[in-house]
């Protein structure tokens, strides 16, 4: 049985396409995760999945129930994005602060910060304030 079924789903906000059409399912007993850079549509996809947003095209069903559905929504646990970052600092400044809390210093600290920026695809945005990053509210 498909626990989550998304068929030909896409999402646009005005003229901006946030998610191109896609199809995917999650079967009973499967575990899935979403990975992607900031602004890639992860939060938008989850909000469509649980019925907080209607897709621009396609259908979404959870446990066979077409979404959005208020009764099903009340059965789903969801915690929206809550960042533990300082919004007035840049990505690099946040990394520097938190790596300092873990006692990192010097070359090791700079190398690890570069690794993390690369891992989350924010290297070119290292000097951008966190408040400027995508949130898709």
Question: Can you give a write-up of this model?
Answer:
The chain is built from four helices and four strands; from the N terminus they run ββαββααα. With 137 residues, the protein is of the alpha+beta class. It has two domains: 72 residues, Rossmann fold (3-Layer(aba) Sandwich), CATH 3.40.50; 42 residues, no CATH class. Strands 2-1-3-4 form a four-stranded antiparallel sheet, covered by helices on one side. The longest helix has 14 residues. The mean pLDDT is 87.
List the helices and strands and how they pair.
Layout: E1 2-13, E2 16-27, H1 42-50, E3 57-62, E4 65-66, H2 70-73, H3 91-101, H4 106-119
Antiparallel strand pairs: 1-2, 1-3, 3-4
Helix pairs in contact: 3-4
Can you tag this structure with a few keywords?
single chain; 137 residues; alpha+beta; Rossmann fold; four-stranded antiparallel β-sheet; 4 helices; 23% strand
């Amino acid at each position: 049985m498909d626990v989550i079924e998304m068929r030909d789903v896409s999402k646009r906000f005005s003229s901006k396409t946030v998610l191109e059409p896609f199809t995917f399912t999650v079967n009973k007993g499967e575990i899935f995760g979403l990975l992607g850079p900031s602004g890639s549509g992860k939060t938008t996809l989850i909000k469509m999945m649980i019925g907080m947003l209607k897709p621009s095209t396609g259908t979404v069903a959870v446990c066979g129930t077409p979404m959005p559905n208020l009764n099903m929504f009340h059965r789903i646990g969801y915690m929206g994005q809550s960042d533990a970052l300082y919004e007035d600092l840049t990505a690099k400044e946040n990394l520097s602060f938190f790596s300092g809390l873990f006692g990192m210093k010097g070359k090791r600290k700079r190398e690890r910060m570069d690794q993390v920026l690369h891992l989350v695809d924010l290297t070119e945005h290292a000097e951008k304030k966190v408040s400027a990053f995508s949130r898709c509210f």
